[in-house]
Amino acid sequence: MGENGVGKNYYPQGGAAAAAMEVSSVEHGQAGGSKCYDDDGRLKRTGTMWTASAHIITAVIGSGVLSLAWAIGQLGWVAGPAVMLLFSLVTYYTSSLLSDCYRYGDETTGKRNYTYMDAVNANLSGIKVQLCGFLQYANIVGVAIGYTIAASISMLAIKRANCFHVKGHVNPCHISSTPYMVIFGVAQIFFSQIPDFDQISWLSILAAIMSFTYSTIGLGLGIVQVVANKGVKGSLTGISIGAVTPIDKVWRSLQAFGDIAFAYSYSLILIEIQDTIRAPPPSEAKVMRRATLVSVATTTLFYMLCGCMGYAAFGDDAPGNLLTGFGFYEPFWLLDIANAAIVVHLVGAYQVYCQPLFAFVEKWAQQRWPKSGFITGEIQVPLVSSGFKLNLFRLTWRSAFVVATTVVSMLLPFFNDVVGFLGAIGFWPLTVYFPVEMYIVQKKIPRWSSQWVCLQLLSLACLIITIAAAAGSIAGIMSDLKVYKPFFTTD
After folding, report:
1. pLDDT tens digits for 463-477?
2. How many domains, the chain?
3. Rounded Cα–Cα distance for residues 18 and 3 (Å)
4. Angle at alpha carbon of residue 359, lines to 357 and 360, rounded to 5°
5. Residue closest to 270 by CA, chosen among 138, 144, 117
6. What CATH number is given to the structural domain containing 327?
7. CA-to-CA distance for 445 and 14, rounded, in angstroms?
8. Residue 51 C-beta-side C-alpha neighbours within 13 Å
9. Alpha-carbon distance 241 to 247, whole Å?
């Protein structure tokens, strides 16, 4: 893929050795024909619109879909779907802008930007590059924590569903989520040894299938509940004053914005996904725009159906997590299948999100200590496929990262509040601001032209939404911390 270390032909930037390898690979490509190498001397990319769509769907239709019924419950039948549609349109539009920044200059022959940070560096430079890197990688760490929490809640829900089935719904069935976080962490240590994006396509496709599985089950259970209720619950304005205090109504509504933003968050890995797409024609930007359209349209349809049907089924009592909040108790085996699908999906989504961070750290280490056998050496693993090689630094640092995020997840197992906060802090800078600013530079849009003004107004509006949503989520987390005891909280 690219110089970020995500691709198979990674080597650090700069230096005679790197330049020699670049020339050698290009010459090899010319000798062996263009079937082997792309225009930048890397092994030929093989991704298509469908593999890119699978990566996006894996990243987008994540745990966020399960909180949408609650989010619509705070906003009501009018504002809820409207806000969801608004976020989908903004995400599609800014993702299209960002996809144009994969190549600097001409979209078919310009210099490739292999990572989000590369694109920012090529178009903006200066302090904005460091700011982008901090926000991107901090958000990835946050997503890893959020997915660990969500996966443990789903595993715990399987145990509780079986408990409720045997002991009755009045039994509290208190179970600690900590052991399940450990189980998920152990699984991620294993899967995190997959070197790069090229080798996790199968995991993304499996995860995308799982996301459709549990979303469909949630939708079906919602429809059944609406039929059983003999009507649709909910109101035009959402949860009413009286059921919650006026200030809680405000905070919860703002948090709902963060939850919806999180459900559409994937821009921070868009460039890395685009770098898997095969070379033109057509251009990578055109393929990525089609993949984005297919993915965002598909996810929005599922979000509308699942979120609205969940709210219609439970009204103001819609749980924070549709399949683990136990609005549904039966059939317990169907809930088990749905929650198992969530866990499998989150295993893949965790890897899709974390690959850019893994690659960044490994690239930096190889540039800093190029002669270290611990960092650059590889060991052939005979028990696995012949193509798999184990790197000791990758094993050590990725395992340490998984352990760290797992421990933090144990300290902060607040699904809705954490999801809302992550969605809020990542939405404006990574999904809106940087794509807009890079597009303005890339297309040389004149300052104070009508297009420039419109893009800046879009960015300003999204900044206001981000600040408000972050405030609501922080208020929710502070409220949770008042009654929480680390490592002892049970669900």
Report:
1. 998 888 888 778 777
2. 1
3. 11
4. 65
5. 117
6. 1.20.1740.10
7. 32
8. 19
9. 9
Q: If residue 360 lies in a helix (H) or strand (E), which one and from where to where?
A: helix 332-368
Between CA 464 and CA 283 the distance in angstroms is: 35
pLDDT tens-digit map of 72-104: 989 999 999 999 999 899 999 999 999 999 998
Dihedral sign computed on CA atoms, order 328, 334, 336, 338: negative
Long-range Cβ contacts of 42-45 (<8 Å, 24+ apart): 42/1, 42/2, 42/7, 42/8, 42/9, 43/7, 43/8, 43/9, 44/278, 44/279, 45/1, 45/275, 45/276, 45/277, 45/278, 45/279
DSSP per-residue codes, 139-166: HHHHHHHHHHHHHHHHHHHHHHHHHHHH
Residue 211, domain member (yes or no): yes
Q: Which residues of 19-44 are buried (b: 16+ CB within 10 A; e: fewer)?
A: eeeeeebbeebeeeeeeebbebbbee
Instruction: Tell me which residue range forms the domain holding 242.
Output: 46-481
Pick from 61, 73, 69: nearest CA to 263 = 61
Quote the CA–CA distance of 81 and 72 in Å, as a whole number: 7
Q: Write down the pTM of the prediction.
A: 0.76
Instruction: Return all residues near 486 (Cβ < 8 A) that are at least 6 apart.
Output: 410, 411
Task: Say if CB 422 and CB 139 are below 8 A apart.
Answer: yes
Cα separation of 110 and 106, whole Å?
Answer: 5
Which amino acid does the sequence have at 175? I
Is 450 domain-assigned? yes
Report the 10 Å Cβ neighbour count for 245.
11
Q: Is residue 29 part of a domain?
A: no
The two tokens of residue 408 are 């933090």
Instruction: Give Cα separations from 254 to 65, 352, 471 (angstroms).
Output: 17, 28, 7
Question: What is the Cα–Cα distance from 197 to 270, expressed in whole angstroms?
Answer: 12
In this structure, is residue 22 part of a structural domain? no
